[in-house]
């Protein structure tokens, strides 16, 4: 999660504790920060929007200007155009699709507005000033290692490994699956079956119900997203199956509580923290005010920041619980 | 014209007397044929898993939620309307019933709450359409966006878990009777009730009249507006029941529940032979239509097809299924 | 010129035509006679390329003729006026008249030319006042009928088929229609004319072909010389005696309905128990408006009293609860559930009577429908058939049957015999009279003056929305009434 | 019938000649009133930004893609059908036109490819509906899933960028003439052409007949099947044009383009006064309906409302907009 000191500057992002260690939190020139993200129809994205807004509120020198979140590319382009017209001082953009919004991000940069690219990356480096995001590939790797190692230790050969993806057309889904596959390969394992859900409880439930029918014996399951994981767990409980263990993704508070209780098949989850939105707002402020990150030697904010994906298990869940987002 | 000729045309059978004869049966034959075909594919491709009880039960459990909604939708469409707000109303009802404030009162009140919220939202639809004179497409579209918005506000966009003390609700999905989860029985009950109301009561008969020719129905002394309003309330009630089922299944209430259910339900109704112009259709047809969709998805997942191929195949299967029950151009509408 | 031989057409369960022959000469007006459901419309739909015959041959001007589509038939020179109005409500009069053969250049319709053509055809039909640019949906049924005729005339047809064109027309219009038919036949165009009004056939027809139960019983009878009795007995297989039932001997009872200044000043009258009150007038004189206003189906000025107490006609359902029933004018648009069975159509107006706590007693329903189907001779006599497979006249009988169920106190009948054949008509009259004898009040609208005079006890004469005369039917004769309704209203 | 009586019924008015009179005008007045109201809200809440040229241009650019689709949809719905596959066809056309194989041939061929793919898919819809006798809802639903599946396969679910050498295509969106991007002109052109075809050609006028009374149209000698087929091909062509616009705007082809466009387009058409039963409607109405939706979105963007409130507000606005053009019960359909 992003409050690791290495990743962002100097304050734990989600909690509104503005404990300034350097001078960066001192009020500076007033800046207007525009913000655009996909529609908050999903716990993780909702947490993104909320974190961004909460962080912006901590700073009296930020005027926060969010625009209508939408899942329609065309509308998001318009939304960003309107922010450019409004001549904001910095833009924080979580595009529906980096490639498709690349052009309008370029236009913003050309108009002299620094773009902080959040999570889904623009292909063109000229399109943004700084990128901050999670490591989707790394998330798959983390899940793959957890599952691979555990099965190896158990001495299972030819394990049945089931993967429940998120929305299949998103590049992030493809990255996660790739990482998962690559990590498993190092143990000589491969994915037996994978199906995509829509990041919602209900679709997770539906897909899991059928997958459980398709495979009478499962050894391990990775579910990309803890939001849809609630539905997946309900389906597993309904079926009464417990011969396998499951790893989640994203790190919602709910998943962490399940892990802590230890009463279900969910043993671990790999993080992809929405705290990155808080960091992005802070970065946007620093960039707009021409400041650097006081913990680093560099005089300017770095060009790209990748959050690490961590594995949460019963052993360390205590530590992460306060950072989990309520999905 | 001689009497033997007439006998030929006179239908016999289950649906014979409803006025939806011959044709109706032939239609259902087509659907049944499509189902049998799909089942055969299942048996061939996954002989080990497809025909197991647990798989069949799981198909029915999957169909239950949307199945209940489909029953209400069948009424609305036969009555000449359409309801785009079903998924959103279900979401709203599930969220309302799972707020902490509601959950305090226990599972019974939660169920009651879901049913009331569903019926209430349906009633608003009905009022807008019959007394506000909005076209159903627009009124229920407005309800769709507004209900989802309200559900998001109420839940603060979070997934609301059914609390531990209310697990009685969840037991609808986990408790089995004769090996079949209770929610499947609820589904069956709703279908049976829907069939009875549509085919054996004045309410059902009026629904056909109101949808088939509203002006004629009005001049025959039917209170078309009130009836229309009741149809949407009925659909809302079905959404409320569906909300209970989805809460039981997923152990949650969420503003994301039921996304795009409206399309699935409408498609099931229409594949089942109900015309979008109203005045015709059967509950059995709609349920068969829905089972076709559910079976397709089940088969794909059992066989581990990827989504893109699934989509292509789904398109083709829909076309083939409907060609099996080809309909002539005169009856063409939407 | 046209020769149809051995035509057979089967619908599922019904042999509508069974080896029918028809011979039409150039320049003649050939009439088709037959009871409701005899197969007249089916026969001419075969000519028009709507249906394909199962057997039989057609030759036209010596050549084999097998129309495969309406387009084909139109190109071959057959134009048709269909029994059911088939116009497109959303298009203008001119667009409807020229639909399918619009004047166009490079796909662009030439609207000026189209309007000119339409104006010309309408003028020829004696209706220059129908504007080519008016939207057809806004016209009255009678004006729509004129547009239908104009459409048939707009084709350069060698044979024009008219399926009950006069059913929606009043007296003066029929005369106009006959003038056109004479013009056409004089130019060598053949006309096939279908009507249930024998006097029309006698006036316009050259020869008559009679159909009965899908078979030809007589071909090419001379129209003017064959006695009416003979025609009727050929059609029905029996003789129909005295057409109108005798009037009630006892005086009418208490007042059921009284209206004051309804729809307009001076429109005040009453209907009593056991009384049949007829409304005479031209099409568009405001009779339908009165019925609908009484029934609550249309907002109108004025006061309505039922059994002496003033009521506010709210919506039809409240009036139905008070014992009223309306058989509307346009059966397809206003009365029928086309997809439903005859039974469902008949019982629609009195569903609560067949139900307990909302639960339908379908056995009783079927029994009642069967009784009424027998009473009104609905054919085929199977009430479970979808009503859309019945012929026009039989559908009309089902519309009437709807209000013969249960206890009505006042029936409002708008053109109840439209499209009903002679034999069935006599039965309908008897049924209506019997209802009156049981104490029901009847308010009847008909464009056929003899019908109003023969059936009613009292007659109200309407002209341009005003009630101009009230009298006992016995005191009036046809000429007097015609004089009154037409006075000053004929287009100069 | 006497001449005075007929005169009473005869309407007069500006639009008297189009065959859509009185009513038509009143309807458009309602829509214009709603637009004016929304604009007033914009002026009051954001006096600084709302009425700027650049904001208006951006509203039109946003409306352009779906606007082109709406034109095709208007034809289909007036013709008595419905097309659920528009968004998916647009996605497929955009993907097909941006494959590397196609991009080799330069922007002109890419445009041609998009138009052909769109028209071809529309033609398949048309064939299934008019000759295969599938109900339009089902046929185009099948096309929706199949086209999206195919688009996903073709693109391997990746977003395909327009290559640098084909930037001529992207210039449709970036090049301005009189300060207005070219794609807005294309939008305007399509609307104008659509209007001309619908109102001034035999094809357009027959569309009303085919939708309003297919039986009457057939009896009048119109080839109803061929006409129906052409309507869907036309809608497909519009999707192809929309694909070009979306490629220009986003510089990409993607299987996710146009998600749920079908609902937006249908809603715009219906709010514009076209009946889902066919036979009535205007292009102008549909475009006004679409602009209302776009304006709502724009206002929300400018005012930065949160999503849930937006949704609730959107629902209410739709209801109010339509109440402004209340329609009577007789015309009630879907
Ligand atoms: N589409 C159809 N399907 C089934 N039966 C039909 C169909 N059309 C007509 N019939 C039947 O064919 C027979 C002849 O009907 P037709 O309409 O030709 O009668 P008609 O002589 O025109 O009667 P009317 O005087 O009442 O108009 C009737 O028994 C009718 O029920
Ligand atoms: N839907 C309508 N819209 C406008 N005017 C109408 C409408 N219906 C009827 N009218 C007008 O109202 C007047 C009375 O018509 P009405 O139908 O009551 O006459 P009618 O004597 O019953 O004639 P008909 O025999 O055609 O029914 C006529 O001038 C007619 O043009
Ligand atoms: Mg007939
Ligand atoms: Mg009348």
UniProtKB/TrEMBL annotation, chains B, D:
Please provide the record's keywords in A-Z order: Cell membrane, Membrane, Transmembrane, Transmembrane helix
Task: Supply one GO molecular-function term.
Answer: transmembrane transporter activity
User: Cross-referenced Pfam families, in alphabetical order?
Assistant: BPD_transp_2
Q: Which residues cross the membrane?
A: 26-44, 56-78, 108-128, 134-151, 177-198, 229-248, 283-302
Localization terms from the record: Cell membrane
Q: Tell me the InterPro entries matching this sequence.
A: ABC_transp_permease
One GO cellular component term:
plasma membrane
Give the bilayer topology. Multi-pass membrane protein
- Under what name is this protein listed? Ribose transport system permease protein
Source species of the chain = Nonomuraea soli
Q: What is this organism's lineage?
A: Bacteria, Bacillati, Actinomycetota, Actinomycetes, Streptosporangiales
UniProtKB/TrEMBL annotation, chain C:
Question: Is this entry keyworded Nucleotide-binding?
Answer: yes
InterPro entries (alphabetical)? AAA+_ATPase, ABC_carbohydrate_import_ATPase, ABC_transporter-like_ATP-bd, ABC_transporter-like_CS, P-loop_NTPase
Alphabetized SUPFAM superfamilies for the sequence: P-loop containing nucleoside triphosphate hydrolases
What GO molecular functions are on record for this protein? ATP binding; ATP hydrolysis activity
Entry keyword set: ATP-binding, Nucleotide-binding, Repeat, Transport
Q: Which Pfam families match?
A: ABC_tran
Where's the ABC transporter domain? 2-238, 237-489
| Protein name per UniProt | Ribose transport system ATP-binding protein
